[in-house]
Write a structure and sequence with these properties.
The complex is a heterodimer of chains A (114) and B (113). Chain A has 114 residues and is an all-beta fold. Helices cover 0% and strands 49% of the residues of chain A. In chain A, strands 2, 4, 5, 6, 9, 10 and 11 form a 7-stranded mixed beta sheet that branches. Chain A has a 4-stranded antiparallel beta sheet with strand order 1-3-8-7, with no helix packed on it. Chain B has 113 residues and is mainly β. In chain B, strand 5 and strand 6 form a beta hairpin. The termini of chain B are far apart. The chains are: A mainly beta (114), B mainly beta (113). Chains A and B meet through strand 4, strand 5 and strand 10 of A and strand 6 and strand 11 of B.
């Protein structure tokens, strides 16, 4: 069990550019979650998948944000036309029924928009 | 709406002493779960302890225990025999009626040698 992994760990981009982050959940975890954490705050829920189905999206997830999990394994989170307010740590978590759906977090991707 | 409030932005404790971190929450759900997560500096968030709302018995994991007061909607974390490695941000989180976790703003714990 290698844990949840995220790539890249850090991303610096200019305002207006598109960025994509990847999350690889723990093997056989069927649920995958995305959260955003800004400095001095707790994580805020963005969206979650059960297998390949996106079952819940937060109102925080504007039209510029899109998430996919095409084969029910890894997931991508894309932000189009980045804004300075998008600067944050983007956290991924996964869970499984065998684990009581406890969410295990990855190390996060820190996005800086200049 | 579900909310989680952590009223202590920072706490400090002497090594080997005991410290209690406070958390209050609000939810209209009758079935929910409460968690404490630890986030060390520049490291990933890890689950410390979990409490099911329907269980009256307070959860315990080694040096970590909770005081769950359902009527008061209070969920505090007690760390006994504090160690230097306990220094971290601690987040209280609520899960109810949905898969999402709702987090508080966190408490930064410093452990003094």
């Amino acid at each position: 069990d290698t844990g949840v992994s995220q790539d890249p760990r850090h991303k610096i981009t200019k305002r207006g550019q598109n960025v994509t982050f990847r999350c690889d959940p723990i093997s056989e975890h069927n649920r995958l979650y995305w959260y955003r954490q800004t400095l001095g705050q707790g994580p805020e829920f963005l969206t979650y998948f059960q297998n390949e189905a996106q079952l819940e999206k937060s109102r925080l997830l504007s039209d510029r944000f899109s998430a996919e999990r095409p084969k029910g394994s890894f997931s991508t989170l894309e932000i189009q036309r980045t804004e300075q307010g998008d600067s944050a740590m983007y956290l991924c978590a996964s869970s499984s029924p065998a684990g009581g759906y406890e969410q295990y977090f990855g190390p996060g991707t820190r996005l800086t928009v200049t | 709406a579900q909310t989680v409030t952590q009223s202590q932005p920072e706490m400090s404790v002497q090594e080997a002493e005991t410290v209690t971190l406070s958390c209050t929450y609000d939810t209209s759900e009758s079935d929910y779960y409460l968690f404490w997560y630890k986030q060390p500096p520049s490291r990933q968030m890890i689950l410390v302890i979990r409490q099911e709302a329907y269980k009256q018995q307070n959860a315990t994991e080694n040096r970590f225990s909770v005081n769950f007061q359902k009527a008061a909607k209070s969920f505090s974390l007690k760390i006994s025999d504090s160690q230097l490695g306990d220094a971290a941000m601690y987040f209280c989180a609520l899960q109810g009626g949905s898969e999402k976790l709702v987090f508080g703003k966190g408490t930064k714990l410093t452990v003094n040698p």
